[in-house]
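Quick one, C-alpha cells below. Sequence please?
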C-alpha cells in the first residue's frame, strides 16, 4: 500500500516545517532546497515542491542534487541521516513528465545501502512508470520471500523494501513472464501487507480474478492496518467488482473513498461508473 501523502514519515525531522497559517511560495521552497546549510529547510523545500507538483525549471535539477547528496548508511545513525534524499526521491515521483530526466539518479539509488532510500526510489520509479527499473527491481526481489523478504536480524525490517518494490512493478506495468514469476512467490509471504502488495501487482499485470480474491480476503483481516492496505490495493488496481466489498469493509469512510476514487480513475469509461459514484456520494 503506497503511503498517503504527508510531509513527514515516522521518525523523520519536523524542523523547518512552517507553522500553521504561514504558507510559503514556490520561490521560497526552491531557495530552501538550494541552500545546503540547513537540512531541515531542504527537507521541507523538497516536500513542498513535490506536494505542489512544481513545474519550475529548477525544481527537478535541484531535487536530483539533493538525491545525490545522500550519505553512506551509518548503522548507528537515526533515520534522519538521509531524510532530505528520501524526500527528494518522493518529490521526483510526483513530477512526471519533467522528472523523467531523474530516472538514472533514481536507478542508482536502488543500489544504496539505506533501505529507506531504496523504498523511496522504488515508489518514485513506479510513479514515473520507468521501464528501465524493471530489471533492477526484479534482481532485488528474485531471491523471494526467503531472501529479499526475510527479516533483517535485530530489526522489524525486511532485507528489501518488498512492498514498495512489488507495487512499483505493478505501476510500471511490464507484464512479462519474468516479472510475474518474480512477484508470485510473495503472495505466500508471512506478512499480510506483502501478500496484499504482491496480489495487487499480479492483478494489475495479469487481470486474473484469482489475485483479486487474495485482496478481498484481506478486507476481512482482523487488523485494521491490513484492511486499509487491501482497500488501497484494490483501488490502485482498479478492480471494479470489489465495489460491494469495499463498501462493507470495516474501515474509515475516508479510505473507502480513496479506494473508490481509484476504481473510477483506473477504469474510466468502463461499465459501473454510476454505481461507483453513487456509492461515493453515500459515503460523503
Amino acid at each position: 500500500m503506497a503511503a498517503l501523502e504527508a510531509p513527514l514519515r515516522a521518525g523523520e525531522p519536523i524542523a523547518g516545517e512552517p507553522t500553521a497559517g504561514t504558507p510559503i511560495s514556490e520561490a521560497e521552497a526552491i531557495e530552501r532546497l538550494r541552500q545546503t546549510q540547513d537540512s531541515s529547510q531542504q527537507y521541507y523545500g523538497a516536500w513542498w515542491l513535490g506536494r505542489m507538483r512544481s513545474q519550475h525549471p529548477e525544481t527537478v535539477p535541484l531535487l536530483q542534487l539533493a538525491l545525490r547528496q545522500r550519505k553512506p548508511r551509518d548503522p548507528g545513525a537515526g533515520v534522519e541521516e538521509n531524510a532530505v534524499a528520501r524526500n527528494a526521491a518522493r518529490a521526483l515521483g510526483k513530477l512526471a513528465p519533467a522528472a523523467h530526466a531523474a530516472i538514472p539518479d533514481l536507478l542508482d539509488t536502488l543500489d544504496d545501502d539505506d533501505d529507506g532510500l531504496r523504498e523511496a526510489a522504488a515508489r518514485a520509479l513506479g510513479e514515473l512508470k520507468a521501464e528501465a527499473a524493471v530489471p533492477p527491481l526484479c534482481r532485488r526481489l528474485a531471491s523471494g520471500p526467503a531472501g529479499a523478504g526475510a527479516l533483517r536480524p535485530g530489526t522489524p525490517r525486511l532485507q528489501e523494501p518488498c512492498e514498495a518494490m512489488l507495487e512499483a512493478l505493478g505501476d510500471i506495468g511490464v507484464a512479462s513472464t519474468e516479472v510475474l514469476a518474480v512477484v508470485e512467490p510473495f503472495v505466500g509471504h508471512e506478512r499480510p501487507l506483502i501478500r496484499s502488495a504482491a496480489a495487487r501487482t499480479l492483478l494489475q499485470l495479469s487481470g486474473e480474478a484469482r489475485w483479486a480474491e487474495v485482496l478481498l480476503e484481506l478486507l476481512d483481516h482482523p487488523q485494521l492496518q491490513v484492511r486499509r492496505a487491501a482497500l488501497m490495493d484494490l483501488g490502485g488496481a482498479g478492480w471494479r467488482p470489489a465495489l460491494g466489498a469495499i463498501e462493507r469493509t470495516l474501515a474509515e469512510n475516508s479510505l473507502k473513498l480513496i479506494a473508490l476514487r481509484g476504481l473510477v480513475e483506473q477504469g474510466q469509461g468502463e461499465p459501473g461508473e454510476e454505481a461507483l459514484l453513487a456509492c461515493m456520494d453515500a459515503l460523503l
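The chain has 15 helices and no strands. The CA atoms of residues 240 and 271 lie 9 Å apart.
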